[in-house]
Amino acid sequence: MAQGRAAKRPDAVAGIVGDWARERPELDTSPLEVLARLHRSYLQYQSRMASRLDEHGLSVAGFDVLTALRRAGAPYRLTAGQLADSGLVSSAGVTLRLDRLEKDGLLVRERDAGDRRVVYSRLTEAGLAKVDEVFAEHLENERRMLGGLSPAERRQLSRLLSRLERSIVESDDAPAGRTDRAGTG
User: Fold this and answer.
1) Are the C-beta atoms of 92 and 80 separated by less than 8 Å?
2) pLDDT surpassing 70 at residue 1
3) Residue among 87, 89, 96 at smallest CA distance from 65
4) 43-90 residue pLDDT tens
5) Is the sign of the CA dihedral 16, 12, 46, 143 positive or negative?
6) Residue 156 CB: number of other CB atoms within 10 A?
């Protein structure tokens, strides 16, 4: 019974939208219904992910570096520029992250044999074991967080979020005053 009541109670975003409807009824607040919920969901996700990674002595940024190196395949090495290009790690913070991971024994830096100017960061055996363990736990944690959605809903949400990302990126190029095309497709 309590679960049924909770499902009918409006969420925080619905309350915010209702407040704006009362205070400024002439404004279309429908973007809040998507983007505020997305933002609140992200904050909840980020908090849970960071907490789990902290249990392993890792930061989110350090985990991103380790997973990028792991995804690169054997010999699990990339340059700082390649790590920055992976899209998950900013070039400004790469060196600090690499320093910490190297200090923790999870990666080593190696100069390229053919061009000594090129420096690779490579997972150590301990780093490979750590990322494999933590990534498996990370996926299980994400599965739990998505437990309220059916597999079909997850696929639909994935497609919609992909479209949302494109829409946000393309909005930089859109002329001011462009109308919403979401209902046409």
Assistant:
1) no
2) no
3) 89
4) 999 999 999 999 999 999 999 999 999 999 999 999 988 998 886 666
5) negative
6) 12
